[in-house]
Amino acid sequence: MELAQHDPLYYEDTVISSLMEEHQASQNMEQHEPGPLPGSSFIADHVQSEPPVQPTTITKEGNVIRKREVVALAKLKAAAKKREIADQVKFDAAMEKLRSKELKILQAGQKRKEEAEAKKLEKEE
Question: Residue 4: which residues within 8 A CB-CB, separation 6 or more?
Answer without folding.
Answer: 10
